[in-house]
Write a structure and sequence with these properties.
Shape: globular
Strand order of the largest sheet: 3-2-1-4-5-6-7
Distance between the termini: 87 Å
Strand content: 5-15%
Length: about 300
């Protein structure tokens, strides 16, 4: 009897954090992993260096990971990936849409171009990649050895998509959209024998906090009405790193949840992942607003500058 082919996982946003840890976990579990990197030329070597401490004693698993060029906002990169996978494997068993970023700051301060990029990266890209890889996902589900397990699309949402906090409105809105996209895809891909799951992390150790802080500073112009609240804005940007669960532990729990024959439609993983949904569900809006406004120094009025006199 011939051996079943090695299952194939495609993971986006693998330069650090959750994506990197998922690469290591899926490779350790026997998958051939295609690790999406926004800039393969500059990040390939770094990827191998970062994986070495985790998989250095498992060269077989390390060899299963292949970095691929994948800027999730590039139609060309997505099309090239789909063509390469079709030629090399003819199937995709697991797609994890992980790539994303947080455009932190007050909504009225964030430039329209940044808002558009927030939704292009966090919301549109998972749809575009899923569309491009749909035939390969369907092909994996049709294989005889896949009778007990369908192919899977896993989208990385966030508890921030459930409970919106000040100075993260763009990010929270994008993750709420990811949750709705996942719900729709779960039903729409059912005729193709493809499961869809949404992982909603709490606080996970990664570079997300540092990157969000950079975004927050960039989105705080010198003339901002919130300039005096810079400390509160940066506090929100760093909130994802408050007592975080390690990315490796997240990856282990994620793999266990997603490897089920019928994975749950939603899985919460990490510190604070259960607290925030409960706060959203049980606290009245007025009380929750009051708590969050005190937390981020929004309980006092801010004077608008006087309007220039009309000519």
């Amino acid at each position: 009897m011939s051996q079943p082919p090695i299952p194939v996982a495609v993971i986006t946003g693998c330069s650090s954090g959750i994506g990197l840890a998922l690469c290591a976990e899926y490779a350790r579990q026997g998958y051939r992993v295609y690790a999406g990197l926004r800039s393969l030329d500059t990040q390939q070597e770094t990827l191998q260096q970062q994986l070495a401490p985790t998989l250095g004693n498992n060269p077989t698993a390390l060899a299963r990971i292949q970095g691929v060029q994948l800027d999730v906002n590039s139609a060309q990169d997505i099309a090239t990936l789909a063509a390469d996978l079709n030629r090399q494997t003819g199937r995709v068993d697991v797609l994890v849409n992980n790539a994303g970023f947080g455009a932190m700051g007050a909504l009225i301060d964030i430039e329209p171009e940044t808002l558009a990029l927030q939704f292009a990266t966090n919301v549109m890209a998972p749809i575009n990649i899923t569309r491009a890889l749909l035939p390969l996902l369907n092909q994996a589900s049709l294989q005889p050895q896949r009778e007990k397990h369908r192919a899977l699309v896993a989208n990385i949402g966030s508890v921030s998509g459930i409970l919106t906090t000040p100075f993260s409105g763009a990010y929270c809105a994008s993750k709420a959209a990811v949750h709705s996209v996942s719900d729709a895809l779960r039903m729409e891909l059912r005729p193709f024998a493809i499961n869809v799951a949404c992982l909603r992390p709490g606080t996970i150790a990664s570079a997300f906090g540092d990157n969000s802080e950079v975004q927050a500073k960039r989105n705080l112009p010198s003339h901002s009405l919130y300039r005096t609240l810079e400390a509160a804005i940066l506090k929100r940007a760093r909130a994802s790193q408050n007592n975080p669960t390690s990315a490796e532990e997240f990856a282990r729990q994620a793999f266990t949840a997603l490897a089920l024959k019928r994975p749950a439609s939603v899985t919460y993983i990490g510190n604070s992942s259960w607290i925030m949904p409960k706060l959203r569900r049980w606290l009245p809006d007025r009380l929750l607003d009051s708590v969050l406004c005190r937390m981020f120094n929004l309980q006092t009025s801010i004077d608008l500058p006087a309007k220039p006199p009309c000519n």
